[in-house]
Structures are given as structure tokens and as C-alpha cells.
């Protein structure tokens, strides 16, 4: 794939966790390109490296070697302040554990990325409320995370990842706590974002109900990407062609 028009370019990414008494190679020479306008899903067994890979892609974890470019920018060589600003503006992340701030209500949680990017609080909360309405939580704006169900908290986390209109959205199991219909609504909303030509989405999922939303599905095993399938026509791309 030509580097023009790429949202993400991962080349030879290696990540080893060193816990003192043992070393775990979570990513072993991973190569993956994601085009602008693409919704890429990552699948594979537990422990194969999916969360590690999206954390590197989102710039929240540094790889040990290899390069990862986001919209042509190599985050690992950026000064840390520039990296923080770049990430705050361009990346939305839905964590597996949601990571909502417990003392802030739903609208306040969702407004955090806007406030970080310099928007006034009242305006940020108005905008956050509109996105919460889109995910079906217009009635729960002032609820604290502890007053919400798991599925509702997950939708707050998704609204927070979308609210500042980032160019890259990275989601770790975004539909795991949602029923079929809500999962479908949330995926349709995420897909709408991915369809914008200067944006991209990467979603880690075990949820077969949402595979049909993907443009391509990359399958991982034991720190490697073992195949990439184009879901529109079922074509399996060899790894050389996927690059
Ligand atoms: N902070 C850490 N310290 C040490 N080892 C880690 C750490 N995080 C992940 N690992 C190990 O790295 C490997 C990859 O983990 P990762 O969380 O990326 O897998 P995953 O495919 O996302 O798994 P799951 O589907 O269960 O979320 C696993 O063997 C895991 O135990």
C-alpha cells in the first residue's frame, strides 16, 4: 500500500514486557497499514497482543523497536508535550475498562477531551450532551458512572472518544457490555465516523455480531498478524500485500 492516504503505518513493531523475572514478547515484528476512511478490526485469542498493538498505535505505549506513524507523524520521536497535544487532538480511545472519572457525571466525563483542547466548560458540556444523546443517553447526562449500568458506562466512554472529532478512534471491545440493538447503534455511529475520508477506526473485538461493520479484519496470534481479510469480498490478503 502506498504511504499516501494512510492513517496508520506500523512497521516491524516489537514490544516486550519485562516484569523482572520474565519477558513477554507481546508484539513480534508487526506490520500493519490502515487507510484513511477505513474501519479495521483486530481479532485473535486472549493474550495475542491486540490491546498492546492498539496502545502503540494510539501513542499511549511506546514500542521497543519498529516505527508507528499516525497520519505521517512518528509519535515516538516527538517531544512528550507535542505528543500529548497531538494525541489529545487526534486520537479518541475507548478502553476495555471504560476509565471514566468517578466523580464527574456523564456530560462532564464526555466533555474532558474538549476542555483539554481549550474549549470553555459550558460549551464543552453542551457539545458532550449532544453526543450523549446520539448514543441514547440524553436522559442520563447528570448521572455519575456508579449510577450507570456497564452498558451505559461503555456508551459514555464511546461518546468521550467521539466528542472532539478525532482523526483516529481506537476501541478495545466497544460492544462487549451492549445488547444486540445498542451494539448495532453504536457501531453504526462509529462506522459513520470512519467513513469520513480523513479518518480511521481500529476496533479490537471478540463480538462476531459486529464483524460485518469492518472493511478489513486482521487476525493476530502470539504477537503476530497472521492474516488480513478484506471483509467486503472475503479476499485474504497476504501479509506482503497488506503492507
Ligand atoms: N503490563 C504488562 N506487563 C506484563 N505483561 C503484559 C502486560 N500487558 C500485557 N502483557 C502480556 O502481553 C501479552 C499480550 O497482552 P495483550 O493485553 O496485548 O493481549 P490481548 O490480545 O489484548 O488480550 P485480551 O483479548 O485478553 O485483552 C499477554 O501475554 C499479556 O499477559
UniProtKB/TrEMBL annotation:
<comment type="similarity">
    <text>Belongs to the ABC transporter superfamily. Macrolide exporter (TC 3.A.1.122) family.</text>
</comment>
<keyword id="KW-0378">Hydrolase</keyword>
<dbReference type="InterPro" id="IPR003593">
    <property type="entry name" value="AAA+_ATPase"/>
</dbReference>
<dbReference type="GO" id="GO:0016887">
    <property type="term" value="F:ATP hydrolysis activity"/>
</dbReference>
<dbReference type="GO" id="GO:0022857">
    <property type="term" value="F:transmembrane transporter activity"/>
</dbReference>
<dbReference type="InterPro" id="IPR017911">
    <property type="entry name" value="MacB-like_ATP-bd"/>
</dbReference>
<dbReference type="InterPro" id="IPR003439">
    <property type="entry name" value="ABC_transporter-like_ATP-bd"/>
</dbReference>
<keyword id="KW-0067">ATP-binding</keyword>
<keyword id="KW-0547">Nucleotide-binding</keyword>
<dbReference type="GO" id="GO:0005886">
    <property type="term" value="C:plasma membrane"/>
</dbReference>
<dbReference type="GO" id="GO:1902495">
    <property type="term" value="C:transmembrane transporter complex"/>
</dbReference>
<dbReference type="InterPro" id="IPR017871">
    <property type="entry name" value="ABC_transporter-like_CS"/>
</dbReference>
<protein>
    <submittedName>
        <fullName>Phosphonate-transporting ATPase</fullName>
        <ecNumber>3.6.3.28</ecNumber>
    </submittedName>
</protein>
<feature type="domain" description="ABC transporter">
    <location>
        <begin position="8"/>
        <end position="242"/>
    </location>
</feature>
<dbReference type="GO" id="GO:0005524">
    <property type="term" value="F:ATP binding"/>
</dbReference>
<dbReference type="InterPro" id="IPR027417">
    <property type="entry name" value="P-loop_NTPase"/>
</dbReference>
<dbReference type="Pfam" id="PF00005">
    <property type="entry name" value="ABC_tran"/>
</dbReference>
<dbReference type="InterPro" id="IPR015854">
    <property type="entry name" value="ABC_transpr_LolD-like"/>
</dbReference>
<keyword id="KW-0813">Transport</keyword>
